[in-house]
Amino acid sequence: MLIQLPQLNAGAAGFALQGILKTTFGDANLLKVDLDGDELTYAMLFSNVQLSLFGYTFPPGVLIDFLLFAGPPNGSAPTNTNNLAWFVSTQQQ
User: What is the band of 12 on the pLDDT scale with cuts at 50, 70, 90?
Assistant: First the structure.
């Protein structure tokens, strides 16, 4: 799977903005969660996310996990509505 974000260059394990600001991650997982037997939720989990600027990583000593997910639309909502959400967790090393 390739994700091409605007103004960003995708790399093997992260993204770079103009070669200066870089994001790296340890793992990327695509998850499918079955809810109530007939509804599906999809999620992408990026583990050990780090930002670096001119070779210096920040925040120092912090592990960051980023979760991006989307659920099914409500019963009366059109199927093309935006139902994306995200969650970030941090932990001191």
Answer: low
